[in-house]
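Hi R.,

Here's the input for the NAP complex you asked about:
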Amino acid sequence: MNVLVLGGTGQARRLADALNERKFVVTSSLAGRVAVPSLPQGDVRIGGFGGVDGLAAWLCRHGTDVVVDATHPFAARMTAHAVAATAVAGVPLLVLRRRGWTAGPGDRWHRVPDAASAAALLPTLGQRVFLSTGRGDLAAFAALDGLWFLLRSVDPPQPPLPARCEVVRGRGPFTADAERELLREHRIDVLVTRDSGGEMTAAKLVAARELGVPVVLLDRPPAPDVPAVGTVEEAVRWLEEARERGAP
Ligand code: NAP
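And here is the predicted structure with NAP in place:
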């Protein structure tokens, strides 16, 4: 069975590795955003497909039997394209999306629908912000001149950036000890992040809880109305069952 895994996440890498071991023919697709990506086993293609039509044509050309959208929960455009292109090409689509986070005792979370809402709320909560939203959302905070920002990203972030900011480079996973130290060292009094879910980047939420730091949490874009699983193991099972059925 020929599987296209739309990747760029740790889950996508682990899925591609697991499927390779189970003799699926896997191609992983990366957007090409990261200069030195961590690569999965099996074939890898890098770069956009050229929209819905480009992806649909790619699926037909390569005889793809199933697509797994294992992109980041906030990669909404790629997910929308996957839904539309698989419908055009008549190929089944499975979404692999880790579960979002839930607040526990001691958490001071403020859920907001998007980056603009987070920027509007921020000045009421703190002055020194750990902004951990990913590069695409930084522009929404660029006009907040009165606040100071700590930014963290794998590759250098592109302007527009907030006027008063410091950039630290880093790729998860991070430990709660390291995150606590980072918050303390920079005297962070509010954290902004997205409801990405997963273990790789959850430590900052633990550190914020322990230090009593409020968190502004950006909600996920709506999930598409297609079959979906939350773990790599569930995705493997779904694909094995599809292979046994001789799907599609
Ligand atoms: P996006 O806004 O949803 O997608 C924008 C365009 O990038 C897509 O239309 C597609 O171009 C291309 N693209 C995205 N993912 C691709 C993939 N896996 N393979 C081939 N082309 C892809 O995506 P994004 O938020 O910029 O994220 C880009 C990549 O980084 C994704 O693979 C995602 O899993 C990963 N990532 C994203 C985040 C995040 O915060 N958004 C965090 C960690 C990792 P065409 O229209 O030309 O096909």
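One thing worth noting: The longest strand covers residues 25-30.

Cheers,
M.
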